[in-house]
From TrEMBL:
<feature type="active site" description="For Fru-6P isomerization activity">
    <location>
        <position position="600"/>
    </location>
</feature>
<comment type="subunit">
    <text>Homodimer.</text>
</comment>
<dbReference type="InterPro" id="IPR029055">
    <property type="entry name" value="Ntn_hydrolases_N"/>
</dbReference>
<dbReference type="GO" id="GO:0097367">
    <property type="term" value="F:carbohydrate derivative binding"/>
</dbReference>
<dbReference type="GO" id="GO:0005829">
    <property type="term" value="C:cytosol"/>
</dbReference>
<feature type="domain" description="SIS">
    <location>
        <begin position="454"/>
        <end position="595"/>
    </location>
</feature>
<dbReference type="InterPro" id="IPR046348">
    <property type="entry name" value="SIS_dom_sf"/>
</dbReference>
<dbReference type="InterPro" id="IPR017932">
    <property type="entry name" value="GATase_2_dom"/>
</dbReference>
<comment type="function">
    <text>Catalyzes the first step in hexosamine metabolism, converting fructose-6P into glucosamine-6P using glutamine as a nitrogen source.</text>
</comment>
<dbReference type="GO" id="GO:0004360">
    <property type="term" value="F:glutamine-fructose-6-phosphate transaminase (isomerizing) activity"/>
</dbReference>
<keyword id="KW-0677">Repeat</keyword>
<keyword id="KW-0808">Transferase</keyword>
<dbReference type="GO" id="GO:0006047">
    <property type="term" value="P:UDP-N-acetylglucosamine metabolic process"/>
</dbReference>
<dbReference type="InterPro" id="IPR047084">
    <property type="entry name" value="GFAT_N"/>
</dbReference>
<feature type="domain" description="Glutamine amidotransferase type-2">
    <location>
        <begin position="2"/>
        <end position="216"/>
    </location>
</feature>
<dbReference type="GO" id="GO:0006002">
    <property type="term" value="P:fructose 6-phosphate metabolic process"/>
</dbReference>
<keyword id="KW-0032">Aminotransferase</keyword>
Length: 605
């Protein structure tokens, strides 16, 4: 979603700002812009196309300056048109970029109109620009501090004023902002990744912080206005891994990276130990007797899958809830619950807010399962498990999901062992299965040509049903979500036993029914559900484990999975569903890595 980059330097900074936007492009956006201080006033270029178009514009117009701010916008208030693209100006004196949503923008707009400010965009952001301008008395830092007190909602902002041409001021509340510390130059960004190549020294701002960056210094105050020290950390290894290589899309590359990502995520030790979740994990785990998992989208499905593992392996009661629901409902806090938040980026606004809500209710023990070690979620939780998926560019999550599943499985076995339900023999068996996963995944990836053949059929459909049972029901949900996200085919997933309670009414010859058929205890029940579909003329597309004795026949198409994989089977079964969605989308010619209306790192509510 939206990205912010800001810089104060002694060199022309435009290319650094544009390169920063390029690095944030994968998150999804619909317009972009850059502004620099030039001859005593802010000058800008904006585009409703790609960052490459913005780059061409700034080159053509010879935009240059030593102080600047830049933005990729994912519209929440106002269409993705040039007038709404950031940087937003106030009276040609002040320029501002904003990530987030200002909830009281309507009342602020009325108040500012009464003061004579003219609004030229439909954004909520424009009120922030005029508000700071109206409070400016020669000190931008001070006016930002006063202005943010009037904002309700979420924001990360970067702002500059013509009367202080070597200063950029930032502030954050509910949306991330980091300071990049350079040599005689300083930066702001919504994600350290944007500044790869410019600096590897970062200070992570906290909620309510206001920051001023100048050529030779960084000044930070907390929400009370008290000077704050935010540790400067060296964050290496950013910046790589955004090359496409031999693949057609990042999503395809990321699907094929899963054996490597999983290898890197499986703990090295030859036993399961709580310490992998953090220093205090053993103590924290000893004090809990249930789990509350909070997440959104694909991460929510990894939580749903994990519930089966946690209850069967660790015998620990587990609730899974969509973060955006939990944060707004009245719930009963349980001091003996471990709150687990799952998020690829660790910045997902709803999940972060749900975490804070849980903490405000008194939940003490919290754990983040996350792909970004420096993220707000990891910093905000007592414990964490880092997945090592590497940068995920495709908006539709793949390797982040399977590595989250690995993390959640490790949690289930660790808790099972601590609670006396996993003995040494079982522990070794789980570890062996985990270690064998990458090889098993490679054999699943080898099914790609058969899946491409199916995708040709799917590309002509407008609806699809996905069925799974037990541990594989969340996998069916994830398969349907992948197909919706990137091919725009309407897809729904059901636990197969629910068919007869409603969705069977939808089944005709025109309805493909994708079935996840592992060789488990529910197999015979699943076969009966498949017969219910066949009896109504529905076409079945079955991913069947070896030994299920499900064979291709009229109206039943079968791709044989290489082996039966016990409790880790969901990690294998989701991969062909990713490939099916991917190749169907390719056959329909959609923008696979940047599906319409969607964004990576959903940093707004
Ligand atoms: N509300 C602002 C910024 C949107 C945003 O943060 N998107 O991710 C706008 O609509 O311009």
């Amino acid at each position: 979603m939206c990205g912010i980059v800001g810089a104060v330097a002694q060199r022309n900074i435009v290319s650094v700002l544009v390169e920063g936007l390029r690095r944030l492009e994968y998150r999804g956006y619909d317009s972009c812009g850059v502004a620099v201080m030039s001859n005593g006033a802010p000058k800008r270029a904006r585009s409703v196309s790609r960052v490459s178009d913005l780059d061409a514009q700034v080159r053509d117009s010879h935009l240059d300056g030593v102080t600047g701010i830049a933005h990729t916008r994912w519209a929440t208030h106002g269409a993705p048109v040039t007038d709404n693209a950031h940087p937003i100006f106030s009276r040609d004196a002040l320029a501002l970029v904003h990530n987030g949503i200002i909830e009281n923008y309507e009342s602020l707009r009325e108040m500012l109109r009464d003061k004579g400010y003219e609004f030229v965009s439909q954004t909520d952001t424009e009120v922030i620009a005029h508000l700071i301008h109206s409070m400016y008395r020669g000190d931008l830092f001070q006016s930002v501090r006063e202005a943010v007190k009037q904002l309700h909602g979420a924001y990360a902002i970067a702002v500059m004023h013509k009367d202080q041409p070597h200063t950029v001021v930032g502030a954050r509340q509910g949306s991330p902002l980091v300071v990049g510390v350079g040599n005689g130059e300083n930066f702001l960004a919504s994600d350290a990744l944007a500044l790869a190549g410019s600096t590897d020294h970062f200070a992570f701002l906290e909620e309510g912080d206001v920051v001023e960056i100048t050529l030779d210094g960084v000044k930070i105050v907390d929400r009370e206005g008290v000077p704050a020290v935010r540790e400067v950390r060296v964050v290496a290894a950013y910046g790589g891994a955004v090359e496409l290589g031999p693949y057609r899309h990042f999503m395809q590359k990321e699907i094929f990276e899963q054996p490597r990502a999983i290898t890197d995520t499986i703990p090295q030790a030859d036993h399961f130990d709580a310490s992998i979740f953090g220093e205090n994990a053993k103590q924290a785990f000893d004090g809990i007797d249930n789990l509350l998992i909070l997440a959104c989208g694909t991460s929510y499905y990894s939580g749903l899958t994990a519930k089966y593992w946690l209850e069967s392996i660790a015998k620990i009661p587990t609730q899974v809830e969509i973060a955006s629901e939990y944060r707004y409902r009245e719930s009963v806090p349980d001091p003996k619950a471990l709150v687990v938040v799952i998020s690829q980026s660790g910045e997902t606004a709803d999940t972060l807010a749900a975490l804070k809500h849980a903490q405000s209710l008194g939940h003490k023990h919290t754990l983040a399962v996350c792909n970004v070690g420096t993220s707000a979620m990891v910093r905000q939780t007592e414990l964490s498990f880092l997945t090592h998926a590497g940068t995920e560019i495709g908006v539709a999550s793949t390797k982040a999901f399977t590595t989250q599943l690995v993390g959640m499985f490790v949690l289930a076995v660790t808790l099972g062992k601590m609670r006396g339900f996993v003995d040494a023999k079982q522990e070794t068996a789980y570890l062996t299965q985990l270690r064998h996963l990458p090889a098993a995944l490679n054999s699943v990836l080898a099914l790609e040509p058969q899946i491409i053949a199916w995708a040709e059929d799917f590309a002509r459909k407008e609806n699809a049903l996905f069925l799974g049972r037990g541990l594989h029901y969340p996998i069916a949900l994830e398969g349907a979500l992948k197909l919706k996200e990137i091919s725009y085919i309407h897809a729904e997933a059901y636990p197969a036993g629910e068919l007869k309670h409603g969705p069977l009414a939808l089944v005709t010859e025109a309805m493909p029914v994708v079935t996840v058929a592992p060789n488990d205890t529910l197999l015979e029940k699943l076969k009966s559900n498949m017969q219910e579909v066949r009896a109504r003329g529905g076409e079945l597309y079955v991913f069947a484990d070896a030994g299920t004795r499900i064979v291709s026949e009229n109206g039943i198409h079968v791709i044989r999975m290489p082996e039966h994989y016990g409790p880790l089977s969901p990690i294998l079964h989701v991969v062909p569903l990713q490939l099916l969605a991917y190749h169907t989308a390719c056959a329909r010619g959609t923008d696979v890595d940047k599906p319409r209306n969607l964004a990576k790192s959903v940093t707004v509510e």
